[in-house]
Amino acid sequence: MSASKKQTILVVDDTAVNRMVLSDILSDEYEVIEARDGLEALNILHRKEGQIALMLLDVVMPNMDGFEVLALLHRNQWSANVPVIIISAETSSTYIRKGFELGAVDYVNRPFDPEVVLQRVRNTITLFAKQGILRDLVADQVAEREKTNTLMVDILSTIVEFRNGESGLHVTRIRIITELLLEAMQRRFPEYDLTPSKIANISNAAALHDIGKIIIPEEILNKPGRLTPEEFEVIKTHSAVGDAMLKGLHFGKEEELVEYAREICRWHHERWDGEGYPDGLVGDQIPVAAQAVALADVYDALVSERVYKAAYSHEKAISMIKGGECGAFNPDLMQCFVDEADNLNEMIEIRSDSAAKLFDVDQLSSELIERKSPGLSDKTVSLLKRERTKLVLFSEMTEGVLFDYDYESDTVLLSGRDASRYGYPQIMAGGEQKSLAEMSEDPCVMLIREYLEAMKPCDSVLSMNVDYVFPDGVRRSCEIRSTVMWSEDEEECRKLGVLGRILPAGDLQ
């Protein structure tokens, strides 16, 4: 083995003979560095950080003994990277146990048996190398899974933004501003107990703050002028609806991320003085997660162009928020916001690197599906594909009543410009005891059921004309167009649901 490729071992012993013996045993396979006491050993570790593969450490030494060295290594977390074998003539169990308690991985007695010393050194270095590889693999998988989870949240939230006529970058800006505010709160106000893990979960959950808007009629959601009081009341329902949607999850609703998302969805329009909605919470009744997202959402709404307004400048937005024109906020949070304001745009730009590409929903979902990264199950892949198909289909449909029937949950989501016009509720779902058919005799539901029963895997699209009695009691001739979603299971092709629309004859195009 060439000298340049030898691993380095640090021998720490105040007796020159012991150092010489160990050097003779190890020098054929390893580069050996010697230290005469604990202080010298620590200096070498500082100078050669990351280069020491193993330390052989005597216990009884002047200036700083071996136990003191082990204690320092343990406090500084060096023992996780530099394994230590104690070398000593002491054989009492108490002595040996103390060494292991302080982080030593092995214990070699003097006088030295060259073969025993060499083999234990080899074994320890090999074990730590394997542990390092495993640790790196786990870290990579955790990081990849976290990235996948974040991208999944972004895909779903961006679908809502797409319908809302806003750029998907709104999602990432909300997350970044929330993260900056919470990091500032963590530094200035430790009493809020904001850990890095909590900040990460809250910031990711922030992307889902407006998912309830999926049920708001498009003509209200994208109205260019001022909303009427009645229309504003409809808009306000999105907070409670978002909370209800997450509460209804079949899996994962106990996860911390989902709990934060529910808080944020429901309460990000609450205000410190109790003038917000939907529950009129006051002060610290509002969870800090919702408080931070509320302020982030207000700022980004001010500096962004909307169908009903032009974008304000950064300076104007800060002035409006400080002046109370956008409602009252937690004074601690406001202090952090004002302190961070000068650097806000720069930090958003830095943390939004490649954001435009990141929030291309179709490209993003394709990359996730093709990558098949750790933690991305077949069910998740299927859901992603289904959401992408729905986004494409529904973006092309503007008139009529749109329906999205989910076979597994036995639920129909009705939307579109004409849904409320013809007397449809937004959601009709089967309860625990009754099926959808038992709860509703709506012809649309019955037709959907008939499609599912009659269609074969090769049949994915159906268009037909029928006489249809709408919930308002009027019979109309209409066209029904639908697409059936199928699973991609090679062993069993299952029906997942139906997407389509009902178009009254008078509205046919």
TrEMBL record:
Which SMART domains does the record match to this protein?
A: HDc, REC
Q: Where is the HD-GYP domain?
A: 145-353
**Name of the molecule in the record:** HD domain-containing phosphohydrolase
Which UniProt key words apply to this protein?
A: Phosphoprotein
Task: Report whether Transcription shows up as a keyword of the record.
Answer: no
Any Pfam family: Response_reg
Q: Which residues form the Response regulatory domain?
A: 8-125
Matching CDD domains, A to Z? Answer: HDc
Q: Which residues carry this modification: 4-aspartylphosphate?
A: 58
Q: Does the record carry Phosphoprotein as a key word?
A: yes
